Amino acid sequence: MLIELRGLSNAERSVALYVSDMPDRYRYQRGDYAQLESWIIQGATRLGLERLYRLAALLSGYRLAWVEECVSAVQEQAHAERFPKTARLDRAARMASIVSLDSPMSEAAKARGLHPQFDGGCPTCQGAGQVWERWIAPGCDWEEEGYEPCPMCPGPVSSVERVAVAA
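User: That's the sequence. What structure does it adopt?
Assistant: Structure tokens below.
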């Protein structure tokens, strides 16, 4: 199985670095780009693409819920079990972002990056893919209400079984 850097989203690169041999206290230095790329490929190979995709989607879902301040206890526990070394995960995310600044990403990788997954279902819509909203249409004086697509998930989402990472 040939894994190319351009075929991985930023979250996938983060997870791959987390499980790679990158030292916990690694500090980027100019000229280390090839080493970072090597660790990303190593981590992706170590996990396998399907598992990598799933872990990255769960990481994206957790981060999105965290930003929206709606992380559930189930999500918090699963995330802590999946990524117990928080400083390492933070460093891996920062290093993946450095790589992503200079490395192209395939359309498939970009598309996967837009589909987060959530432990226990989406915290906003509980997996329905839509939420009840009220809005005022531009140029109108009245308020309307109805179902809108969920702003956090790409549609109906099934809850996820626990997935662990060994690092």
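The chain has a mean pLDDT of 88.
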